[in-house]
Specification:
- Helix content is about 45%, strand content about 15%.
- The chain has about 350 residues and is an alpha/beta fold.
- The strands form 2 sheets. The chain has an 8-stranded parallel beta sheet with strand order 1-10-7-6-5-4-3-2.
- Helix 7 (about 185-195) links the parallel strand 6 (about 175-180) and strand 7.
- The chain is globular.
- The chain starts with 7 loop residues before the first helix and ends with a helix.
- The mean pLDDT is about 95.
């Protein structure tokens, strides 16, 4: 599928920027798919106002592939979304593994009705950049691609600006999730896309959960041969946005409204630090992100959107002290939560 075949409204939605929560995985005590709470999560993100969903990604747990849940989880999200709303939603499927696996997953996602694939390169750690580009090109022949610069702490590969120039030159690339949690590497991506003359085709999405609002509001000036090109991140595809989503969307809209202005409100700039503080607890920064998935689960569990913190890996859970950190940020940043919104709608979502 070529990006020109995507529904025009959805293509415009992706290009102009939107909120794409990374969908978690709800499990039973037996570590089987909990369809009731999985549907509730999808409905929650839609009613909160998300522009789409990212399913089968890191937050969904890459291990779904090892237990036969990749297709069922993608199908359940697509079916739930289609039955819950008639408004356009950008559906992005996570793609992983070596080329044969990633191509197969791209075909599965395309056949289910997903519009694009977010391509993890974690399986390509030992490959050269030439080999990785060949891998990406093969997958892009099946489905429009969203690039994924994943931080090394959770399996990402460090890539050069030249790599991102070559990647952005692939015709079926429509966006890049920039998530190295590193300002220098973030600039490498932006410089690469600019060098490929692809800023008008490849939408930049932040995945930098440590600086979400600054990425979304600040202009980035890129210099080449004395010429300045100014660009912006268009939207976000974030694990952090799997929680407190209704308020996150309000923050996104504030950032979007502040772009292209001569000045940015100081309160909006200061809010970035508060969101980052929350992320430090949810993503377990103190323990090198060990509890990043379980931390999001804990927030959703407290709201009733998940039954527990269960992950596919029984050894994956909250780190020592993480619960107390979540307690702290929930107390100190209570105005950033959407507890009231969830409480008012939870029974409907669980029905």
């Amino acid at each position: 599928m070529h990006h020109s075949q995507i529904n025009g409204e959805i293509r415009k939605l992706i290009a102009e920027g939107t909120v794409l929560p990374a969908h978690p995985l709800a499990l039973t005590a037996e570590r089987q798919l909990d369809k009731t709470h999985q549907r509730a999560l999808t409905r929650y993100y839609i009613d909160a106002g998300s522009g789409g969903l990212a399913v089968g990604v890191h937050t969904t747990q890459f291990a779904i592939r090892d237990v036969g849940l990749y297709r069922p989880v993608l199908e359940l999200a697509a079916e739930t979304a289609a039955n819950w709303t008639t408004r356009p939603l950008a559906m992005v499927a996570g793609l992983a593994g070596p080329t044969k696996q990633a191509v197969s997953e791209a075909r599965t996602a395309r056949d289910i009705g997903y519009h694009a694939g977010l391509l993890s390169l974690a399986a390509m750690k030992s490959a050269s950049e030439d080999e990785i580009i060949a891998h990406c090109t093969a997958v892009a022949a099946e489905i429009p691609l969203v690039g994924f610069y994943l931080q090394p702490a959770v399996g990402g590969v460090i890539l050069s600006s030249r790599f991102w120039q070559r990647f952005a030159s692939i015709d079926n690339v429509i966006a890049i999730k920039v998530a190295p949690f590193n300002r220098y590497r973030t600039l490498d991506v932006l410089r690469g896309v600019a060098a490929a003359s692809a800023l008008d085709r490849v939408a930049l999405y932040t995945g930098n959960d440590d600086h979400i609002l600054l990425d979304l509001v600040l202009p980035f000036d890129l210099r080449d041969k004395g010429v300045t090109t100014r660009t912006y991140f268009k939207g976000g595809l974030l694990g952090h946005w799997s929680v407190w989503t209704a308020e996150a969307i309000k923050q996104f809209e504030r950032c979007k409204a502040a772009r292209h202005k001569d000045s940015v409100p100081a309160d909006l700039l200061a809010l970035d630090a508060r969101v980052t503080d929350c992320n430090s607890a949810f993503f377990d920064v103190a323990n090198n992100f060990h509890g990043c998935i379980a931390g999001c689960h804990e927030v959703l569990r407290r709201q009733g959107l998940m039954r527990s913190l269960w992950c596919l890996d029984p050894n994956e859970g909250l780190s020592p002290g993480q619960k107390e950190e979540i307690d702290r940020v929930t107390r100190e940043h209570a105005d950033l939560s959407d507890d009231q919104f969830v409480a008012a709608n939870l029974n409907k979502w669980l029905a």
